[in-house]
Fold this protein.
Amino acid sequence: MTSEYVPSPDAGAVAESAALARVVSRQRAELDRLRDSLATSAAVERAKGALMAVTGCSPDAAHEALLQRAEAGNRTLLEECWLTLGALMPAAPAAAPVTGPPAPVVPPESPAPPGSAETLGLLGRALLHVGSPQELAGTLLEHLAPRVDADAVLLYRRLPPGDGLELIGYAGLDATLAAQWHLVPPLRGFAPLEALRAGEPLWLEDFAEDRRVFQLIDEPPGRWLSRAWLPVPAGVALGVLRRSAAAFGPADRELLRSAARLCAGRLGTLGTPAEPVASGLSAAVQTVLDALPGAAVLLIPLRTATGEVEDYRVEAATPGAVDILGRTGRELVGSHILESYPSVAGESLWQGYLKALGGEPYEGEPFVHEEVVAGVTVTAAYSVRAARLGDGLLVTWLRHDTEERQEQRLADMQRLGNLGWASWNLITRQVDWSSQVYTILGREPGRGAVPLDLLPDLVLPEDAHALARAVSELARTGHPFDVPFRIRTGNAVRHLRAVAEAVTAPDGTVVEVHGFVQDLTAQRSAELALVDSERAILVQRGVLEAERALAARLQHALLPLPSRPVRLRGLRVEVAYLPAQAGLYVGGDWFSAIELPHEAALFVVGDVAGHGVDAVATMAQLRFTAKGMVTTGSSLTGALARLNFLLLHSRDAQSTATLVLARYEPAERRLVWAQAGHPPPLLVRGGRAHRLDRPAGMLLGACADPVYESAEFRLEPGDRLLLYTDGLVERPGEDIDAGLDRLAAAALAGGPASLDALLAAMLAGERRDDVCVLDIRVPATGEE
């Protein structure tokens, strides 16, 4: 029997293996803890970003809110973060109701589309840094483009009922197209407006069908083959345009709905209300005052029936406003001055308020005011300033109090002005900085202040030489300096300014330096943005001026004006065309005066809606078509019906036009005329002027089946007939009948004078529209 030899284990090796196993176990536990910590940290940051975007709060406030929610719901912080992020996605189908306390919320095994929560977290944090709806649109496009293939993002705000929509932000859209669609009337079938009316997203994924049903922003045609319009809970429509013709999948739709909810909170902080605030001035002032320190209120005068001021009501107040009765901020809103402080009546302060209402700012001398509060006399010294703001008064006051308040005001001034004071004693080498200097320079207070000669070491190398030279010159000669420079804090470059002056001894030696450091980063950014904006404006202006020049040349080529009156079938005809004096575009007013076969004559005056090259092109199409149809024998009403059909089926189906056609038969001196929504001709006969009764006729391009009728009358020797466009008689804010009466009076007052005299009487001042006039005269008996 053989036995196998098994060596006995060495005690030292066993102990070493056991120790190694414990170390490995601890390392694995530490790795698991670190992995869980990283997952929790990522979820917390995404949830904080989403919460900050929705509520507009700070990062610290968002973190505190998550902790409070977790504690109140008996949940862990990670569970609360998943719950917050889940609230941004569409709710899952409701489960059967259960009783008892809610179960802990845990991350689902199959969360909303991979990357959606991460995208929303990143988007939420990014939205905190946008300062305008335009920046918001750019941020949305940046984050949504890789997820849903977005090529353009638009934000439309709904205007008051009946006023349509306003484009408040866009990205992926050229400025010219955005300007064309900036203000949109309440057109039926305009997709963003339909989404707002329905309160539901509008998914447009069949371009051919969508183009037939909806008014689409599409230039050139077919550029965006699919698009989505989602209502944002702030009276705003969010549009996502794609070149892809693919449908929006469930994941894309969920992500876009969540992004729309994120935008609602941020748009609220950017001052984009769903509807106009009823008391616009008070609400706007309150918004400003909420961000200001100190004491300030907006007072609205309360007047008697005779207009005398009998009291003032507080309409808005800063949070730091405190009156002698101890009321603060919003507690003051709604109170009346004399009801609260009856002793003010008759004092110089009351008279100062009245002067300020008259437009003269009031700044009173410090005065002592007493009030009895709960039987105790309270006394305080105030300095008051008042200035008119709209129909009210903006009143600020300063309560003369302790030195501690003065120091607080100094700190507030430095914070608001983004500057801090500093002093350097060159004899004792003592350096004093205010706390704001450390903040501006991005330096920890624990590291201490920097001596004056080492200050250039903090700035960028390219700016250090100029600052060092200024410091050296001040220390040597006492010459003050004001030097701009830049520093780097993290990944950002900040633009700063240092101003300093010297305190010298009797012998001229510099012993101390006083100065301040100011952060100009925001101002510099605004200057650069202004330069970019001015450059864009210049480019846009050049485009507009080029278009106007082209339109003017086209109009001159298509509508030549005779230099003097002409004779047509025994009538004396004079023509005037005057372009508008305001604006960059040429209009679509036009005329025709030609001889027809069989001794007849045709007179036409028309007005195409709009300006620019499109209006001129439509004008040419209508002018030549009308002449051709009447010349070849069409009736006037038949020509109007065909012109209406032509306009409805032209490349610009939204165009409309007004028109008057008149056919003159000299043998019978008979004038047959028809019109399409045009002002009536004016007939001057026998020392009287009256408007012809218009036959039925709707403007061209308004509907598919209009009815046009004609009328006729005989012209007599000495008659004068005026055909004109609405620019001759219309004035802003005036009923058109008043303009027509003014034209009749001017025609009678001028007598047989030329057309120039009539135009001079009618067109005094600036014109906002083009004017076209045909002055037709029948020679009197014996007159050639």
Confidence is low (pLDDT under 50) at residues 1-14, 89-114, 272-279. The chain has 20 helices and 28 strands.
